[in-house]
Amino acid sequence: FTTKDKDTLAPGVWLNDVVVTLFFSLLQNTVTSQQKVFFLNSYFMTKMFDDWNNYDYKLVQRWFKELDLSNANTIYVPINITKTHWILGIIHPQKKLIEICDSLTRKYNKKLSIKRAKVYGHVLLLFMEDRAKSRSLGFDITAWSIVQKECPQQINDNDCGVFVSIYALFHSQNVDIQYNQKYIDSRRPEILQSILT
Amino acid sequence: MSDNEGGAGAPEAKNEPITIRVRDQTGEETFFKIKKSTKMSKVFNTYAQRKGVQMSSLRFLLDGERIAETMTPQDLELDDQDQIDCMLEQSGGL
């Protein structure tokens, strides 16, 4: 965690991968192993699904070896899109459901965000299928669904990383997801504080 | 591993150099020959210099876990020809 990383938590600055991944690893510490809840890092999606949109399971087949993702209750995946946007993928293996939360689904972005949800949701689904198969587990891809979840929206062009972090926090703690931009503004110093301590 | 009497017959001496493959996001591989006791920061620095980028914008991962600069191949249990991933800084706001 360098000064450069820390500076991305200043008001109006875009959060970087180190901050998001550190925050997610802190969230991992808030759950017990019995809960079977996992917080993955932001490199995972980028590694298996590159900017040219090629999905390759082999590139991540050794990742998170020790985690039983196929039988998890919830898996949180921070997703970076072409180094400009953060969205959140939530996988529910028991419910065979993948949710995509995008804090930027405003009017002019609507079509794009729907497409994003489909594409990244589908990649997560393919990963879950390949992961199950690699461990000789059954997997019925037709039983799964991918939905774009309604979630609080940013009103600026810089806070999506904070929205992703706070959504994962609230969702994993079963807190009612009711917050707005103003609340998000106040969370930057708190995220910094939680990382430093 | 270390309870080898006299070392006779041990195929690999403790500090024999190994080759590490660094794979970037385009799939390109760069090879480094280093001793098992050398800090990974040396690999990272050389790699960044060769690629002409700042080291602070690179992330090195082993099986999805970020590698600390102070670690050595020995700490990471890296063997000859093992591969690590190099990824670029990510950022996002809109």
From TrEMBL, chain A:
GO terms for cellular component: nucleus. SUPFAM superfamilies: Cysteine proteinases. GO terms for molecular function: deSUMOylase activity. Residues 1-171 form the Ubiquitin-like protease family profile domain. InterPro entries: Papain-like_cys_pep_sf (IPR038765), Peptidase_C48_C (IPR003653). Keywords: Hydrolase, Protease, Thiol protease. It comes from the Eukaryota. GO terms for biological process: protein desumoylation; proteolysis. Pfam families: Peptidase_C48 (PF02902). PROSITE patterns: ULP_PROTEASE. Belongs to the peptidase C48 family. This is Cysteine proteinase. It comes from Fragilariopsis cylindrus CCMP1102.
Automatic annotation (TrEMBL), chain B:
It comes from the Eukaryota. Residues 18-93 form the Ubiquitin-like domain. It holds the Pfam family Rad60-SLD. Residues 1-20 are annotated as: Disordered. This is Small ubiquitin-like protein.
